[in-house]
Design goal:
The complex is a heterodimer of chains A (326) and B (503). With 326 residues, chain A is an alpha/beta fold. Chain A is built from 11 helices and 11 strands. Chain B has one domain. Chain B has 21 helices and 2 strands. The chains are: A alpha/beta (326), B mainly alpha (503).
Chain lengths: 326, 503
């Protein structure tokens, strides 16, 4: 994948020059490693962690056994607490998503946030697209937004929780255009898509992989991509900016963190390991199959980008009238 | 003829030694994890997923599906023998299954669970094969207002689960509804009743409450000092280990009910096997000629829910394979598996991969037969468990309950909750409150609230959206159900008056 932001590209370049010199006193795990995830078995983050285990084994990057530990509940809060409990353990890695950033903003119960943990690396950005039914009258995003302006509140979008990217993009578009449409939350992706296919809602933000098959079958039409640049598989679909809406969608990310006092040499080991992983053939295949965006950002740059994202999210929440607690 | 050639081709795929081996491996594994509380099919499939990368995808798919429906067979075992539900879809089986075991009829209960599972499971596969594409389209007409009405109908069944006092049953249900509201609200991202606890942000697991209230509560009630626990009667002789012909005749309607209700609810993406099992149990009791036997060991009370949770498997595969939409939480992992093997789940899946679809369908016919053959002899084995004396059995139940809860996420907090709900269950027994309505409220509360709020968001607050044809019919059913006790009372008064006239 060539779509790496300039900041991440710089970090990767810096790392690539650093790594060869750091040969002596290298730390390596000698005990089994635990990957902590915030979903139950079969959830998105759990599946990513298990795929990473398989790929790390295939590429022979980690010399010990790796195990996925599920700490579901509280939108990442329980898992964050579990990672924090490991204090200075070099053999624990937590898999985070944007949910870990959004959660603490609205739930004051969450005492530990991702910023209390040691950032290792951002791995992926998750692209998305705006889709309507194939027989919908809206051929472009502009059609939809004009219709929403003409009939305020009558058009509907299905999506996840109110703090999810689906709703934030909607809020941003509403703010930029003055259009208003309703947002209906469904807990599962399947239900969101069923509501769109059944004609109960008019539009949704959907993963490109899921949208692709429905486009091929003539069930859905994709109007725009929720990303900064066009995805290779969707070369003929405009980004939001190209569609005429100059908004900067908050990226949905996945990454890895360590316990709060993870020793520097262990942090370096994991940055190095995930850097090697993201260059490997199996990773490229995984990213392509799942239509994700490779987006490796290591260490402090990762923390900075999360801080920015968190700030952006907070602003969006406030604008959207979501009660923020910090 | 298309279906016939497809099926023939499917059997060619499914009867190769490799596929057959994967099918048997899957259903055996499924039965085992079904029997063990705490370890569910989703967790098992997630753990095995990396291993399947090295396998042939058809075989892998056959095995994973085998785990999924095999677990439904195994789930009833601990429900019946120990009052500890093995899977959430077997919670309702505890109600009559455990009472049958207490009366020395554990064998017939276990046997009936297997037979009913087989009949309804096979029905589910037949229906999947025959009507999948048109039905999937139809299911899309079902949206939030319809789900709301379905859940209301389910809740109205509280009058059927009530013992002597309807008021107590309603109170119990309200507590269940309240517990279902704990956690982060999806629509506003606010915390409800979390009391500042991080662990409660995600809500309280339904299966944990069911294990606490049913199993732990039962153990506590059994070990009271003035009431020394009696040994459960042990069935003797092969004849008493299997359902009799009379049992089979009594369950005729339960087989149909379980098959149809389970399949239809399975097709709907917004409701899973747990809801299917509750609704088919309610229907069974509502139409029964002897509703008074339910809750005291009626064999239909085992046959209906155990059938419906197996028919649900075929149903849940309908939207999954024809639309790429998982029909329930457990099947949500299957599209991810398909992507991992290089397939594209979606509307063109059957068209693109006919050998995989028909191979899977054929393997499910085989798998259900294997499960029946596997499970019937196991009845004899499992029934022997009741031979152990009470001072072993009661701690065993507690142990199974604790391990089951701890195994899912190794959290002490969850064990604390288990103890709490055990005490709640004990208190309810002492005060003569029925526990089933609490569990019913907990299962249906969250989906019902969600569906109502979604409906009103869709209609900009107009209640008229709930009066579309399907929800209107379901709501009328719910109202009739609620009126049942009233009719009974009127009838009782009428009978009294007639008697007094005669006197």
């Amino acid at each position: 994948m060539t779509r790496i932001r300039s900041t991440s590209a710089a970090v990767v370049a810096a790392l690539a020059t650093l790594v060869p010199f750091a040969s002596h006193a290298d730390w390596k795990p000698t005990k089994p490693v635990e990957f902590i995830v915030h979903t139950g078995p079969g959830g998105g983050n759990d599946l990513l962690a298990r795929a990473v285990v398989t790929m790390l084994e295939q590429e022979k990057l980690v010399p010990v056994r790796m195990q996925v530990i599920n700490k579901p509940g509280g939108g990442g809060a329980v898992a964050a607490a579990a990672v924090a409990d490991r204090k200075d353990d070099p053999n624990t890695v937590g898999f985070i998503t944007s949910v870990w950033l959004a959660g603490p903003l609205t739930a004051k119960e969450q005492k530990i946030t991702v910023f209390d943990l040691k950032p290792i690396a951002q791995l992926l950005r998750e692209p998305a697209v705006f889709a309507v039914r194939a027989d919908s009258p809206y051929k472009t995003l502009k059609d939809f937004i004009e219709a929403a302006k003409a009939h305020p509140g009558q058009l509907k979008q299905s999506g996840g929780s109110i703090t999810s990217r689906d709703n934030i993009v909607r809020e941003q578009l509403q703010h930029a255009t003055g259009a208003k449409w309703a947002y209906v939350s469904f807990p599962g992706g399947g239900e969101r898509l069923a509501a769109l296919l059944g004609g109960h809602v008019d539009i949704m933000v959907i993963e490109p992989q899921e949208a692709g098959e429905n486009v091929r079958a003539g069930k859905l039409r994709v109007l725009a991509q929720v990303s900064e640049t066009r995805l290779p598989k969707w070369a003929d679909i405009p980004t939001l900016k190209e569609a005429g809406y100059d908004i900067h969608p908050t990226p949905q990310i996945r990454g890895v963190v360590g316990p709060p006092q993870m020793p520097a040499e262990a942090v370096k080991y994991w940055i190095d390991t995930f850097d090697k992983l993201h260059r490997s053939a199996s990773w490229k295949k995984y990213v392509e199959q799942n239509e994700l965006e490779d987006a490796f950002v290591a260490g402090d740059a990762f923390r900075k980008s999360m801080e920015e994202t968190s700030k952006e999210l907070r602003e969006q929440f406030v604008k959207a009238g979501i009660k923020v607690t910090r | 003829m298309d279906i016939l050639t497809g099926l023939l081709h499917g059997f060619q795929v499914a009867t190769t030694p490799a596929s057959l081996g994967m099918c048997i491996l899957g259903v055996v594994l499924g039965t085992v994890i079904g029997v063990l509380p705490g370890l569910g099919p989703s967790a098992t499939i997630a753990m095995l997923l990396p291993l399947t990368m090295k396998l042939d995808p058809t075989g892998a798919m056959i095995m994973l599906a085998g785990i999924y429906y095999g677990a439904k067979y195994g789930g009833s075992t601990t429900s019946i023998l120990l009052n500890v539900p093995g899977e959430s879809s077997s919670v309702v089986t505890c109600i009559d299954g455990y009472q049958m075991a207490r009366k020395g009829r554990a064998g017939p209960a276990l046997g009936m669970a297997a037979i009913s599972s087989f009949i309804a499971g096979t029905f589910g596969v037949v229906a999947l094969m025959l009507v999948a594409p048109p039905l999937a389209q139809l299911s899309l007409a079902f949206s939030s207002p319809e789900y709301f009405a379905l859940m209301v109908m389910g809740l109205a069944m509280v009058v059927l689960l009530a013992g002597d006092s309807l008021v107590k049953a309603l109170l119990s249900m309200l507590v269940g509804l309240w517990i279902s509201g704990i956690g982060t609200d999806l629509f506003t991202a606010t915390s409800r009743f979390t009391f500042g606890s991080v662990q409660l942000l995600g809500g309280i697991e339904f299966i944990l409450v069911a294990i606490g209230v049913f199993a732990v509560g039962e153990v506590l009630a059994n070990v009271e000092p003035h009431d020394p626990p009696k040994m459960l009667p042990v069935p003797k002789g092969i004849r008493n280990l299997l359902p009799t012909w009379d049992d089979m005749k009594r369950c005729r309607f339960a087989f149909v009910n379980g098959s149809v209700v389970g399949f239809i609810i399975g097709v709907l993406p917004g409701a899973g096997s747990t809801i299917a099992s509750f609704i088919s149990y309610g229907i069974e009791k509502a139409v029964s000629r002897h509703p008074e036997e339910f809750g005291k060991g009626a064999i239909e009370g085992v046959a209906a829910p155990e059938g419906s949770n197996n028919a649900e498997t075929g149903g849940a595969l309908v939207p999954l394979l024809t639309l790429g939409i998982p029909g329930s939480g457990t099947t949500a992992i299957l599209p991810a598996a398909l992507v991992l093997w290089g397939f594209k789940p979606g509307p063109l899946f059957i068209h693109d991969q006919p050998q995989l679809f028909w191979g899977l369908v054929a393997s499910m016919y085989i798998g259900n037969v294997v499960l029946l053959i596997l499970n019937l002899p196991l009845v004899a084995l499992f029934a022997q468990l009741l031979r152990v004396p009470a001072y072993v059995l009661q701690p065993l139940i507690l142990g199974v309950a604790i391990v089951g809860v701890y195994a899912s996420d190794a959290s002490m907090f969850q064990l604390g909750l288990l103890a709490l709900f055990g005490l709640v269950g004990y208190a309810m027994r002492k005060l003569d409150f029925p526990t089933a309505p609490l569990v019913l409220g907990l299962v249906l509360g969250d989906p019902m609230e969600r569906a109502l709020r979604q409906s009103l968001m869709m209609s900009q607050g107009h209640i008229s959206i709930l009066l579309r044809p399907i929800p209107a019919v379901l709501l009328v059913f719910a109202a009739l159900l609620l009126a049942v006790p009233l009719f009974r009372k009127l009838n009782a008064i009428r009978v009294q008056m007639l008697e007094s006239e005669e006197a």
